[in-house]
C-alpha cells in the first residue's frame, strides 16, 4: 500500500482527495490543524488506511520532526499533495504585514520545507508523486488577491525547477490550478458575483472538488508516470 500525505485534509479539496485516494487503495496520511467530523468519519470507514496528524503549517521549524514521526509510523512516503493554504484577501496598500507574512509562510515556505523532507523517501525509493495545489489566480490575477496570487505563482515556479531536480529519480512534480469551486471559500459569494463567475465558465458552472480531486488521483497514478513539470487547470473552462 503506497503512502500519500495530504495536507489541508479536513475539508474541501483535501477531504475529497483523501476520500478518493482511500477508495483507490492508498494509505492516506492527512495533516491539518484540526480534524472535521467528515474526516473522522473517513477514518472510521478506512480504519487501516486513513490516519490524521494535527499540525499548524505556520510552525515551519517543526516540519522535519513531523515527517520523522510519520515515516517512523508508516514507512517511506510515495506521494505528497501540498494542499494546505490560507486565503487572506485585501488590497495590498492596506493589508496588515502579519497577513502578508502568514500567506507567504503557510502557502510557500511550508510546502517547500515539507517537500524537502518528504522527497528524501522518494529519492531512496527512486519513485514518487508530488502535486502542488496552486490556483488560477496565480496566472489570471484578481482584485484583492495580489499576495495570495503571488504565493500560488511561486508554487508554479517551484514545480518547474523541482521537476528537473527530481526527474532522474522518476519522481514527478506537477501543479493543479483549480478555479473557483463549490466549497466554503465561495460560500460568501452570493447573487450576481457568483453568477458572473458561472457565466464566464464554458460549462456554465463552477468546478467542484470532485473535478479537482479526480485530476490529483490521476497525477499520482502509474498512468501519469510520464507527466511532470506541468500545470493542470481545473476551472470548468472559466479561463478558456
Primary descriptors:
Sc_DH/Rdtase_CS; alpha/beta; seven-stranded parallel sheet; 240 residues; SDR_fam; 3-oxoacyl-ACP reductase; 8 helices; oxidoreductase activity; Rossmann fold
> What is the β-strand count?
7
Under CATH, the homologous superfamily reads NAD(P)-binding Rossmann-like Domain
CATH C-level category: Alpha Beta
Mean pLDDT equals 93
**CATH architecture group name:** 3-Layer(aba) Sandwich
Helix count? 8
Tell me the span between the first and last alpha carbons.
38 Å
Question: How much of the sequence is in beta strands?
Answer: 15-25%
Catalogue the unreliable spans: none
In the CATH scheme, what's the topology name? Answer: Rossmann fold
Number of domains: 1
Strand order in the largest sheet: 3-2-1-4-5-6-7
For the sheet with most strands, the description reads: 7 strands, parallel
- Report the radius of gyration as a whole number of Å: 17 Å
Secondary-structure-derived class:
alpha/beta
List the helices and strands and how they pair.
Blueprint: E1 3-7, H1 12-23, E2 27-32, H2 37-45, E3 50-54, H3 63-74, E4 79-82, H4 97-125, E5 128-133, H5 137-140, H6 146-166, E6 171-178, H7 192-200, H8 209-219, E7 231-234
Helix pairs in contact: 1-8, 3-4, 4-6
Organism: Photobacterium jeanii
Family: Belongs to the short-chain dehydrogenases/reductases (SDR) family.
Pfam family, one: adh_short_C2
Amino acid at each position: 500500500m503506497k503512502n500519500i500525505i495530504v495536507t489541508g485534509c479536513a475539508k474541501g479539496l483535501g477531504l475529497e482527495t483523501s476520500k478518493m485516494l482511500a477508495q483507490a487503495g492508498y494509505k492516506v496520511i492527512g495533516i491539518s490543524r484540526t480534524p472535521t467530523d467528515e474526516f473522522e468519519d473517513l477514518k472510521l470507514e478506512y480504519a487501516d488506511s486513513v490516519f490524521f496528524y494535527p499540525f499548524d503549517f505556520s510552525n515551519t521549524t517543526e516540519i522535519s520532526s513531523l515527517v520523522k514521526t510519520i515515516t517512523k509510523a508508516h514507512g517511506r512516503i510515495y506521494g505528497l499533495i501540498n494542499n494546505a493554504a490560507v486565503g487572506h484577501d485585501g488590497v495590498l496598500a492596506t493589508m496588515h504585514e502579519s497577513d502578508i507574512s502568514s500567506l507567504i509562510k503557510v502557502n510557500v515556505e511550508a510546502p517547500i520545507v515539507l517537500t524537502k523532507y518528504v522527497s528524501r523517501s522518494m529519492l531512496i525509493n527512486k519513485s514518487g508523486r508530488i502535486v502542488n495545489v496552486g490556483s488560477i489566480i496565480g496566472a489570471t490575477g484578481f482584485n484583492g488577491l495580489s499576495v495570495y496570487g503571488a504565493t500560488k505563482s511561486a508554487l508554479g515556479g517551484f514545480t518547474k525547477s523541482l521537476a528537473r531536480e527530481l526527474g532522474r529519480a522518476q519522481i514527478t512534480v506537477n501543479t493543479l490550478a483549480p478555479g473557483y469551486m463549490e466549497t466554503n471559500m465561495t460560500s460568501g459569494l452570493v447573487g450576481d458575483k457568483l453568477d458572473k463567475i458561472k457565466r464566464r465558465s464554458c460549462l456554465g458552472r463552477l468546478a467542484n472538488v470532485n473535478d479537482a480531486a479526480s485530476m490529483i488521483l490521476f497525477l499520482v497514478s502509474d498512468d501519469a508516470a510520464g507527466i511532470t513539470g506541468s500545470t493542470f487547470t481545473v476551472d470548468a473552462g472559466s479561463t478558456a
